[in-house]
Amino acid sequence: MRLNGTEDIIDSIEYPLTSEEVIATHGEHVIELQNGTETVAEVLGRLGSETYTCADDIKTALYTAVSHEAIGRRFYSDRDAYTLGETGHTPESF
What we know:
This protein has helices spanning about 5-10, 20-25, 40-45, 55-65; strands at about 15-20, 30-35, 35-40, 50. By secondary structure, it is of the alpha+beta class. It is about 35% helix and about 15% strand. A hairpin with a 2-residue loop joins strand 2 (about 30-35) and strand 3 (about 35-40). It has a domain at about 5-70. The strands form 2 sheets. Strands 1-4 form a two-stranded antiparallel ribbon. It has a two-stranded antiparallel ribbon with strand order 2-3.
């Protein structure tokens, strides 16, 4: 995920800010995801009304509220159990 300069803007604004204020002033900024793009307004809009007290609050919100297009291989985990009937390594407990 690339914030494309949005991080610099977030660092330079004064806090506290509501999500509505951030969306009104910086909502058009585009965030690049692995499989597409989203705007700050789209991402923060999913979270409802919030008050951000510092830049880290907004950055955390942006990183955690992006859509599934930010995920490389959706529903993939190298820790999943093998499919029934499939053989693989025996799990080892440490």
